[in-house]
Structures are given as structure tokens and as C-alpha cells.
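CORE FACILITY INTAKE
Project code: CF-77B
Contact: R.S. (postdoc)
Sample description: multi-component assembly, two entities in total
Requested service: structural model of the whole complex
Turnaround: standard
Below are the sequence entries exactly as provided by the requester. Do not edit them.
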Amino acid sequence: MAAAKRNIKRPVVAAKAPAARKMIPEKALIMSGYGINSEMETQEALARAGMASDIVHINDLIAGEQRLSDYRLLVFPGGFSYGDDTGAGNAYANRVRNNLWDELQEFLDGDNLVLGICNGFQILANLGLVPAFDRSYGREIALMPNRGGRLECRFVTLKPEHESHWTKGIERIWCPVSHGEGNFSCSAETLKKIKQKKMVAFTYCREDMSPANGEYPYNPNGALGDIAGITSADRKVLGMMPHPERAMEFYNLYDWPLVKEQARREGRPVPKESPNMQIFKNIVEYFS
Amino acid sequence: MASFVHRIEVHFTKDPRLKTRTDRVRSLGFPVDELHLADVYTIVTRSRDFTRDELVQVAQQLVNPVVQEYTVDEATLPLFDYAIEVGFLPGVTDNVGTTARQTIEDFLAMKFVEGEAVYSSQLYFVRGQMPRPALEKLAATLANPLVNRVYIRTRQEYGQKGMDRVVPAVELHELSTAEPVDLEISDAELMKLGKEGILDPQTGQRRGPLALDLAQLHTIRDHFRTLGRKPTDVELESLAQTWSEHCKHTIFASSMDDDVPRGLYKTYIQAATNEIREAAGEKDICVSVFSDNSGAIVFDDEFIVTHKVETHNSPSALDPFGGALTGIVGVNRDTIGFGLGAKPCINIYGFCVGDPETGPSLFRGKDASNPVLSPRQILEGVVRGVGVGGNCSGIPTPQGFCWFDNRYAGKPLVFAGTVGILPRETGGRKLHEKTAHKGDLIVMVGGRVGKDGIHGATFSSEALDSKSPVTAVQIGDPITQKKFSDVIVKEARDLGLYRSITDNGAGGLSCSVAEMAKECNGCHVHLDRVPLKYHGMAPWEVWISESQERMTLAVPPDNLGAFMDLMDRRDVEATVIGEFTDSGRCVVECGGRTVMDIGLDFLHDGLPKKQLTTRFERKANPEPVVPCPGRLDAILLLMMKQKNICSTEFITVQYDHTVQGGHVLGPVQGKGRVQSVATLTKVVLNSKKAVGLSQALFPSYSEIDPYQMAGAGIDTAIRGLVAMGIPPDTIAILDNFCWCSSDDPERLGQLKLAAKGCYDFAKAFSTPFISGKDSMFNDFSGFDADNNPVKVSVPPTLLISSIGVHPDAAKAVSLDAKIAGDLVYIVGQTREELGGSEYFAYLGSPGNTVPVLDAGAAKERYARLASAIAHELVASAFPVSHGGLGVALAKVAVAGKLGMDLTLPVPDRMRPDYFLFSESLSRFVVTVAPDHKRAFEQALGADAVLVGRTGGSRLRISGRVLLLDVGVDDLEKAYKAPFGGY
């Protein structure tokens, strides 16, 4: 048996090796396996911002072949882990809690960050990594099924609510949601605490940046308080339903053909990058 | 052994879906006040029982306490009048149950053993008074009798105790091993054998159709005569699978009349591709055509892209959700099974169904028994099936269509396609090539084998109605597939751990192993090593079962350790079931006995050749007699509401079309969100290039002129890509023929003309076919509501799918009008060609003159337009199609939420309504910035006619006089109205 083959390097499929970019020395660990599916575009977004990462199958982490302590950023990317069976993110969260809890606690003790996007946010919510008021990590929020009862895939406009290292310099995010269960819910008391502690990272809003006030399709799922993403009380963890990594470039944005024409007619340069990249740049800046 | 059964019920304290769910059921006509829902987990163990504490802990793993409550072995007691529980029948894949089982195993550090499982079901609580028949009808919309079991209780019957704890375990008796089958019987007996199957010696029942005709059975009989023995049931079933229409495409391969001795496929489809490739020389874009599970073209120096479109019609008629789901995850496997494994990166879909506003009026049985599912139930089921498959697998599904015609009410067509991306080389190996070697191990990867999908390709609908639930249509399990897909295309492939791979689809192992055995000329399989879902399967069942989510690989012995270790760490089941040989034979062993030993040459090439004769006669249809109205405002609004023209955005938004991060031009475009006929997706994130996809079909032209029907499909599929800026010489196409009654010379006559059209027009465009598929018997036989026997055949349907490579995604053009004051052009000629058009359908008469394709002129025009787009001279481009210019102009305006004021060059002799709604091919509506007027007109020449400008909020169209003046808002409302409530 070829024991030497155990240390498998993941080849990057369908994303050419990023051109030699300046990378910070800190690395990110991107979780995969069991139906996680956005690991590659997440890796690409981080690479473009200047942070290298490894995509690691949860089983390799459980088997001790890779160590969380080698990384500074832990990402739970988007996907359909376990097909959303028993509640989106629940089964994957159980697998993490039942096998990796101590390692995760240790990671959270350090000066490290955790990012969960879409299915990743659902996993974080089920693990209790957000809101984590007092680091007891009980479940206090839920991402319930969308009000419409099915998956919703469309571009949404997000407004950063409270400035943190995650949202610095961001005026507006314009990126896709694509989930069946993103309907943010919690008790009135929990909501009050989340707001008091300025933990709301992003809210759904209209194109003119006024609040969605629950109105479909601006708020695509019925989320309480139009909440699209929150941080943990200590700001180390960010969970958000929308996918900034799915619209990295200008021409990934829904309205780019119109914006391009407008820019050309007015003699303005046509942008190359999408403003959504700022989230990933902020992560890199945090470690720089 | 006694078993321990526990039941956990979970419900939301405040269910966010309550209103939508209730509204939906009300919209179907049920007087329901509220429809609540609980998820039920039935846990069955034998080796040990759980304590109450353990069960509570288990329940806590299965719920979210913030918003959900649960009961353990107690009834959920909300306010309700009736309870309806819907679970799966024994043997049907239960994904939620499997996930719950894994969670429990992980949490309690235990393993469920044989006979232990978790079963999921859903418990609906109905508030509102309903008579029993209405209740049963409601249950029928929540469940499908082929895959679901249903229990209904009134509040009183439910009591405090609730529903029963039901265990839907498969109970099977040990079956015999392989049996010899006597073929030395009368022709009448042989025909019965071919039609109804082998007589099972134990049950006395026929096992289901072999779909072998008399000539084929004679050939098999004669072959075994020379061997001096009887075939076994394994051998006969295996030959039936391999020789099936599904696998061998006998109709496309057969000699036809005097003029097509080599058959339609070789003469028309393959020949077109071969000749185009030869003429292209160094500029040939094809890499792999027809020979593998998908076709492949060049993407760039480093990558190739694959494409394959499948149909899954019969299963979808019976179980729309399961059939469509299996269809999409099946074609994903055609991607994973291409070359050494391409990564699925785009899914596409197409649904041909009856008008969803009509009820089921067809019955499989006499006396209004066994009704077919209603078109709406079929539509909603297939929409959900393709959605779940793509969404769970992380593959974007941007591109697709719906086509409505009541001739699809008996049998819908479900098209599912997948594009894959594959590096050309890794470590010096060309990844589109694969060869199993003698001595390589046959490894089956993925799900286990059960009795599901036995005779899947050949089961008639009558047989599927019989009470044999475990062989019913299979439900796919995208997560099992996602797990092996990831480990194969993202890890094992590039480590070079295997030498060949193919998908287990139709015919199961019998086809996949025998197909790969051609690469090294032999195989030896041990059937008793194949992992099964449950005991008690006969060897022939294991060999041909179509249980989903499996691949077969050839792994060199030296790599076996590393391969199996990798699979184990990814929680993917992999089993060595035999080895490849060079014996020239397919040998299968079971329980120490040889149950199959057939020469590969006979297995693959032994089937007798057929000679088909065809007939074609043009029929004259009545022409419409309705005079042209003075103004066309109302008619345009009505046309926007035609089901084949209006928006089906409810599908678009429930399909993830942004995953993998490559969305460039999506399924809906512009501020007004109009559906496009083509989409552009990046599949290599760091490349400028992007993959364009489009599809086209014109079933309404088929009965008038199948030759031009094919031309319309090819032209429109290519044109959709050109409108985004894709150069025509990077485009390849795929054909999917879904025909009917293909034993009828007249239907074959239409087929022959359509195939000839494919050859002529593909050649004229120099656009090669790279892959195709046919499904020849899309007919429904049964009874109408008055008990009259009826046959409903689909209109001959040819779907052309196109794939092309955009050289620079940043220069792609969308369909929406952009800026007020832009110039509006019509590119291409409009002629009086309304036969089979949407307008004539609206007028109630199909007419006779379908659009005639001038491919030479079109080809030149497309190159010019693509070049104009490459020079960024075009602000928007839209290909004119169903509904003609009127609809196209309205869609461009709605998409941009921008009016237009236009004067169209309506010829004196032509009715303005005919000018507006003629479906002449090869046309575009283009908008251009005033600054680019001269350059654009120079680029396009006389082909482009300036007809007016964008601006304001109304679409105003004049011919010789004012024809219409409609608010863009009103057009948008009409366009979005028909499916607004879906």
C-alpha cells in the first residue's frame, strides 16, 4: 500500500493556478466534503485578495492528517452538505461538534477568524459559533426555510450595518443568494442583544440602499430584521447567507452589461473587479 | 428477529412556509384553512434498543431548538382535523433517513447493521373540513403511489396515540441462482418471451420485458445452438440490455429504404461531423465525438469542454420528481465518466409537457382507472427534480426551456444536459483517452445495488403500474454522487489512480462492465462481491439493476491500495468486483458457478441488422381565415401570454445558477428580467473565455416539414450564441431526437427527413455534431374519460443544443435595450412564413409554410455580427424566435424597461400582423449606440435595417400606419402573468 500517497495535494480543477500574486504568510483552511460545493471559488476569491488556502476534507481533519492549528482563517463555504437533510447545515455541524469540537475551541481561543458563507453560515449557526454572546456556543439563532418554501437564487443588495474588520470600507455588496433555508430567526431578546452588541454585519436592502423591510424579493427569504449576516460577539466569526465569492469580477454582476454601456457613454473606465472582493481584502488586511 | 422501533416527530414552533404551503394547496382547489407539517424519523434497530435519554439526545441532533420542537414516541398534537402521513415505499431511496442514520451513528459512536435503518416520512396536519374523496385527492397531490405510502386519519382516529410506527423494510425471499432458459420454443412463445420476459420458475410470473424482437431472439437461439447449450437468464437479460434500442440505437443504425443503406446515424449525423472536421483541418474544434459518454470540444490550450444531453421521459411520466432527478444526476455521470473524468460545471434542462392549466384526461386503465398525472403535477415534479439534482450537486443550472403542447400530456419529455471541464493533460496523460488493461481490477464505486430500476430502459408503463414497488422508478441520491464525484474528478483522477471509468446507467453493470471490456477485450466478474442494499437478489437482477449513483473503474493492481484508501477516507464505498481480461469473453460468476460466458463480439455486434422502410407525404393543412385587425395592441399582449413565449422565471430562481462563480450572462437579463435563450458561464475562473449554451426546438413545425424543422433548430441554437458574441466557428451542436411510433413508416419518413436536414444544415454552417441521443417511442396508450382507447403521441421533437466558446466574456452582449436614444435594427429578412408559428396556433390553424432556412446567408451574417460584437459596437442583441419580431421587440423593451418608437418595413403585399409574428429564421433585434451607427452599418451591410430608436415607456410600432402603442409595463405584466402563481 502506497503510504506515501496519503499526503494528497488537491489539484485545482478548472481554476488555473492564480498568477503569482503577493500572498500573506497566514493561510486559510477551507472545509470540504459531504456536499460542500463552493470551496474552489472561495479559494480563488481569497487568493485574489492575497491569502493562500488549502481545501481540506473534514475527514482528513478528523483523522488528524491536517491540523486546524496550522491555519489562521477557517472557512465553511457554501454548499448543500448532506443535502440539507435534517435542516440545512445541521448534519455537518453535528459531524464537526461530535469530532472536532476541542480543536475548534482552541482555534477560537487564538487570534484567528472564522467565515461561513451560506451553508457555512447555517453550519456556524447550528454549532453556535454565532452569535456566541458568552462563548457558551448554544444555538440561539436559526436559518429557517425560506418563506417561499423553496430555493431562491438571485442577486441581492446588502448594506453593511456595523463597521468591523469584516465590513470596513464596504458601501454596498451586490451578490447572489442561493439557498432554501436562509430565513434568519431568533427570539426578540436575542435580536435585541445582537443589535445592542452591534453584531449585525449585513442587511438586505433595496437598490437605493433603503431597508428591504421584509419585502420580497429584496429580502429574499423573510429574514427577521432583514438580517443577511452577523458576526460573533467577539467579532472573530462572520456568518452570511449571500455569496460574495460568486461575483468576484465586474462581469459576474447581474447588471454589468448596462453599467458597462453607461460607463462607456459617459467616458468612465469600465470596472474590472466587483466591490464584493472587499470582504476578502478585509480578511487579508486583518492579518497583515 | 424482533426489532425496536421508535418514532421522533419534529415540527416548527412557527413554520415560515405555512402560508405559502397553505396558499398553494388552496390554489389547487382544496378548502384548507391551514396545512401544518411535521418531519418524522422512524428508527429501527435489532441488535440493541435505545434508552429514553438516548432518544432525546438523538432528537436534539435532528432539530434546531431555536425554532423547532420534537416528540419521542408520542404524537404531535396540534389543532387539526385530518392527518396525512407520506413515507416511502420499501426499497425507495430515502436520503433524509440515511443522513439521520449517519448522524446517529456519529453521535452514539455505533453502526447500524443489516436490517437496521432510519426511515423518514412527512406528516401533514390539515385544518378545514373536507369530505373523504377530497382528502384522498389532496393526499394524491402530496404523494405518488409509485414511490410513496400514504396513511390518512381523522382527528378522532388519530386520538392521543397518533400515527402507527410503520417500518417500510424490504422483505425478500431467497431467490434462485441463474436458470437456463429454453429458446427451442415456438415463435409465438418466443415473441411472448421477448415482450413479457422470462417466466420465473418460482413465482410463475413473467419478469418483465426483454424488448427483444423475433429476429433478435432467433439470432440468440441460433448462437446458443452452435454452442450446444441453453442461455442462462443472466445471459439473456444481459443481451436484452446491450441490444436494446436505448443502448444500440437500432433505428438510427438500421439500413433505411434504398438510399440510406448505412443508416441515419452514419449517413447523416456522423458523416456531417466527419466531413466538417476534415474540411476544418487545423481549425477543427472537436476533440472527442460520439465515442464516449459525452462529446468534447477545445476550450483553450489547457482545457477541453464536454457536453451531453439526455432524455428521461418514461420515468418522468410516472414519477416526475424521481424521474427528472435521476435524469440530471445521470447525465452528470456522463460527464464524470467522460475520458478519465470531467468536472460537471453547467447543467441544462428542457421540459415538454401538456398545458398545466388542463386536468388529467387520460387513463392507463379502463373505466377511468389509473389516471396519468396532471400536466401541472408533472411540470412541478420535473422542475423540482432537476432543481434538487443540480442544487445539491453544486452545479449551476442557468440554461433551459419549457415547451407546452397537449400532445405531451401522455408522455412528457425531460431533457437534462451537463457540460464538463477537463484539463487536456495531467502528467503527460491525455485525459480524454482511457483504456482498461488486462489485469486491471473492476471497481464499482458509489451506491449499493438494489432491485430498483430493473428493466428500467424497457419497462412498459403497464408493467410499471403493477404492484411491484421495489422495482419502481428510483430516486436519485445527489449527495452520494457528489461524494464520489468530488473524490474522482478533484483527487483520484489527477493522481493517476485508475485507467478507465464509465457510468452505470441503463443496463447497470451489464452495460458498463461489458462496454469497458471492449477496451482490453474481456472481463471476469464475481457477482457475489457486488454490495447489495439487501439480500435476496437473483444474479440477473444484480447484473442489470439500474440503481443510481455508481461508476465502474479500471484500477491497476499497483494502485488499488491507494485508491481504496482514498475512497475510504472520503466515505465512498468502493468494491472490487472482478478483473479485466483479454479472453475475448464476458464471464460472470456467482456462488462458484459461471452464470454468463459470452463472446464480446457476439454481445456487442451480434445483433441482426434491420432494414426499415419509410414513407412521406406532405399533408395540406387549412390556412387561418381570420382577417388582420386594424390595430395589434391587444394581440401583442395576448402573444406575450402564450405559454411558449411568456416567462417561466419561477424555474430560474429556484435553480442555483451562480454556484462555481462563473455567472456572466444568466437565465434572466435586464432590469425587466426577461428570459434569455442563451447563457454565458465562466468555467475556468482565471481565463477570459466563457462557455455559451443555447437550445432550440420547433415541434410545431414537425408535422408540416420535418426537414425545415431541423433547420430551424440548428439555426436558432447557433444564433442564440452568436447574439452574445460567440464566433460561429467555435460552436458545436448536439441532437436529441424524441420521436413517436417509430415502427410506423410515416413516422420514420419524418425522421429520415429531419436527419437529412441535420446533415445539410450542419454542413452548411460547418457546425459539427459532437454527441446525440434518441428516444423513439414516446407514445401513450390508454383510455380517455369516455373509456375509448386512445393513443397520444408526442409531436416529433428534435432538440438541438449548442455549445460555443466566447473569446472574451467582458465583451459579451446581453439582450436588454440599454439606453434611451439607441438605434434599433432588425438584422435579417422577414418573409411570410407562419406555418407552425405561435401566431397561427393562436389563430387556431397550423398552416403550411414553415420558415425556410438560407444557411449560407445566415452563416455570413453571424460572422459579421460576432465581429461587430467583438469590436464592442453592439449594445444589445436578441435572436428573433417563437412569436416573431413583435414578441422579440417587446422582450427587448421589457428587459430594458425602455420604450421604442419604430417603423417597420412591412412590404405592401404582406399583412402587418403576419410581418410582426412571422417566425422567419436567422434574424436579430439589435440596439446600437448612436456613435457606432456608421461602424455597425458597415460591419453588417444591407442585412441590418434601422427601424427606430429606444426611449420613453411605450412600445410604438408602425408599418404603413400605426400598428400598436403599448406601455412597456403592460407588456411586462402580460409576459409574467401566466406563471405568476407558480
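Facility notes:
- Chain A touches chain B through 84 residues (CB under 8 Å).
- Residues 90-109 of chain A form the longest helix (20 residues).
Invoice: internal transfer
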